[in-house]
Amino acid sequence: MNREKDMANYAAVFFVFISVLLLLLPSSQIAHTARVLVSYSLVPSLHYGEKYDYYVRNIPENFLNLLKTDQENRALKDRIRELEISIKTAESDREENRRLAAEMGLSRELPLKGVWARVVNKNPQEWYGAFFVNKGSREGITPGSTVIGVENGRVGLAGRIFEVYQDFSKVLLITNSVSSVICSLPGASFEGLAEGRGTWLLKINYIPEGSEISEGMELRTSPGGLLFPQGLSVGRVKTVYPRESFMNFITADVAPAINIGALKEVYIVKRELPPDLSALSETLKK
Amino acid sequence: MIIMGDILLYALTGIVYWWWTANLSVFGVAPNLIFIAALSAAIIARPAKALAYCFFFGLYLDFLGASLFGAYALIYTLMAYGIYMMKRHLDLVGSFSQVVAALILTPVIMFFYQGLSLTLGRINPLQLKGLLIEPFLNALLAPLMFHFFAQLKKRSGIL
Fold first, then answer.
1. Min distance A12 CA to chain B CA atoms (Å)
2. At what angle do helices B95-116 and B128-156 cross, to 10 degrees?
3. In order of start, what are the domains of chain B with their CATH numbers?
4. How far is A231 from chain B, CA to nearest CA, in Å?
5. Is this prediction's pTM over 0.90?
6. ipTM given for this complex
7. Please, is B150 exposed, middle or buried when counting C-beta atoms within 10 Å of its C-beta (0-12, 13-18, 19+)?
8. Is A18 part of the contact surface with chain B (CB cutoff 8 Å)?
9. Which of the listed residues A105, A139, A174 is the one where a domain comes to its end?
């Protein structure tokens, strides 16, 4: 009995020590090893479980989709012909835009090429914090990649890739309390920092006093932010709070552009930096 | 051989939890099967093993989240130790006592996690609907999970 008691005490001290170590040193080797170890217990559930569950669940729907696809295919062929003409015009516009931007020394456009991924797990304990998607390093996903959501034709920023494993990745949502996005209003001269609060709403801070901000205005990712491509819709201003006497900026609540809690699929942008910036990035790594 | 069974049980619990949260969450609320499994393991298993189970279950929840890594591991380890101390004075084998334990411990753990998050990360993860509904869902499923774990221990020696 005493031996069992001693064992329990030693085990408690050991596990508490490890937990505290993981808590206090989140980016240490021990925390990384623990993450990798636990990730192996998730591999079958996230990869194989999700894959087969999806196919089995969708068999009747897939049959109907096959018939619909044939009809859509005909309509899309006509649409493609129209779009080919538009592309030719857009290409010349883009080329001109690139040339003018280079001549004027303006920030450059980053191409939004990426992959679609399905949301495979959401933790109810962190509903607005993070979720897993079914694409990982095998598909070329890298930490920091931008994650975009689409809802009823609206496109909006959902978050960024936080951790990458072989066949799945974890997405840190913009609504997470540790997330922040530099935003700007199209046409306005100021920028603000939209911060997650762990709820469905964001809060935008650091808007200079006297700025023309009002409810319903759309916020987009700023060209000044390095994490996200510029111009992505972040959300709309919901409530503007008056300036507090001890602060020299105003704040506002922002409703995300898309319903983060209802996302089923997301688009992960692989940021392909222009050659000169890639070379700079490599140099910085060294 | 038993250790393999333990690893399998751990992975199986994780898979069931994943499947439930991915498919059966209603308005973002689902029973926390990992908590119920940790509670059942803490009651059934020998103290050192119960602590290990709870630590790794906590680590699993930490891994699913993106905030404090190690917080759930710490809380679940302390919960296992608390249950080990309680087991000497209280009968936790009965269904009623498990329901009461789940009903009390779920909000306690939520508040503990909230406290750690606010202290270490200035994060506010507590959702009101989860706080109000999850304890009852956990309490309903606790006796079932306990029965399953107890049968497993009886028949195969796992836990």
1. 7
2. 130
3. 2-156 (1.10.1760)
4. 26
5. no
6. 0.90
7. middle
8. yes
9. A105
